[in-house]
Amino acid sequence: MNNNAVLLTGAVVIDESGERQLDIRLRDGVIAEVGEALVAGDEEHLDVSGCLLAPGFVDLHTHLREPGMPEAETIETGSRAAALGGYTAVVAMPNTDPTQDCVEVVEFVAKRGREVGLCDVRPSGSITIGRAGHQLTPFADLAAVGVRLFTDDGSGVQDEGLMRRALEYAGELGVVLAQHCEVASLTAGAVMHEGECCSHLGLPGWPALAEELMVHRDIELSRLTGSPVHLLHLSTARSVELVRAAKAEGLPVTAEATPHHISLNDEHLSSFDTRYKVNPPLRTIADIEAVKVGLIDGTIDAIATDHAPHPSAAKDRPLDEAPPGMLGLETALGVARAHLDCSWQHLIGAMSWRPAKIAGLSDSQGRPIAVGEPANLVVIDPDAEWQVDPHALASRSSNTPFVGVDLKAKVRHTMFQGRVVVRDGIATA
Question: In 3D, which of 277, 270, 193, 268 has the Cα closest to residue 237?
Fold first, then answer.
């Protein structure tokens, strides 16, 4: 058998151009042939009848924790989780120790990804040194080694003047700044969304305004500088309205939302279960509906996981001490399909070609399914209904609230650079 070749037959192919029935032959990392009733040769043959075949998913927002927190996740385990979730590329957030704020750390992450990754691991760079918000990183040096997205994720850049300069530099270099939208002076000590549930529980609240003020500020800074800005994990109805208005004006603003912000609300914190503690916090049902509408009408460009693994010892702390974040890579498709009423093409676009464009990866990811294109692909069983087995997760952590929750649609196979890295829902390495 030719280990560098795969034939996939019987699938409904979905990409940016539309939907059609095709067989696909992969050889030496690219799509070598497309057509009807292709005949198997010496390659592996995967009958994917009844399934969808699409460009692989791209996650704009993955925490791989390496270097610095191998007890929570590593590039190897995180990329395996990504492949199982249908991802062929992830953007690794800079919240590492040391921070991804210099060429040496960025190159370590990229090299490690090439050595052990089951998907394309693309390191982001931080906007400021140490993500401390005081001094800009060497943008030009980081861009020269391949960084295309910069963010201080976990900390919004609080200084307006510094953010303006960062956007000006980014515009000159052709890179994108991604903002964690949080005015820190409004969220000190906050545990959950500021609202009725928060008041009832007597917990410190995190007002929606803390996000919305920074969304507004950075939209205006994008207008001033002409540089693109990407807004991370939007969670409030007003944030969606602000982005919708900015796009109507033609401003270069993009945005993402997480699966948990379209499926879980602040009332889940009434159990004091730290698995529901995230940043930004889970919001109200009205906010959830607004974010869903934003995803469906294209105001929000992408679904991003904000995959944030934490070891059990950290999440077992009291609610006010436990770190925010939950796993997302292996459940993103199932949660999104269960909660978004949209076409398959629109959903896959939000997880594939649209985030690929934002991340600067559209030369190899989210590509049309056509001869000569890179073979970074996912096969989806659209009719699968399943629940999370916490013992079967690839991540080193288990902080997911979706155990016992009914999810819809499941990744069956993932092909990265023409290799079958997930076969029948099992990682091959």
Answer: 193
**306 catalytic, yes or no?**
yes
Q: What's the distance, CA 144 to chain centroid?
A: 24
Answer whether residue 60 shows pLDDT above 90: yes
Task: For residue 166, give the 3-state DSSP assignment.
Answer: helix
Asked whether residue 46 carries a pLDDT value surpassing 70, the answer given is yes
DSSP string, 359-396: TT-TTTSS--SSTTSB--EEEEEEEEEE-B-GGG-SSS
Q: How many CB atoms lie within 10 A of CB 381?
A: 17
Tokens of 68: 């610095």
Whether the bond between 98 and the residue before it is cis, its omega within 30 degrees of 0, is yes
Catalytic residue among 47, 306, 320, 341: 306
Judge contact between 191 and 248, C-beta under 8 A: no
Write down the residue that tokens 């997302």 correspond to.
328
Residue 47's DSSP bridge partners are: 9
d(CA 166, CA 169): 5
Contact assessment for residue 237 and residue 261, using Cβ atoms and an 8 Å cutoff: no
Q: What is residue 4's predicted lDDT score, i.e. its pLDDT?
A: 83
∠ at Cα 61 (56, 62), nearest 5°? 85
Predicted TM-score (pTM) of the model is 0.97
Among the listed residues 378, 336, 334, 382, the one whose alpha carbon sits nearest the alpha carbon of residue 356: 378
Task: Give the Cα-Cα-Cα angle 279, 285, 156 (nearest 5 degrees).
Answer: 25
- pLDDT at 41 (0 to 100): 87
Residue 1 pLDDT more than 90?
no
Domains in the chain with CATH codes? 2-53+370-427 (2.30.40.10), 56-358 (3.20.20.140)
Residue 321 buriedness (CB in 10 A; 0-12 / 13-18 / 19+): exposed
- Where does the pLDDT of residue 201 fall: very low under 50, low under 70, confident under 90, or very high at 90 and above? confident
One-letter identity of residue 8: L
pLDDT of residue 362 exceeding 70 = yes
Q: Is 162 helix (H, G, I), strand (E, B) or coil?
A: helix
CA 152, 76, 257, 345 dihedral sign is positive
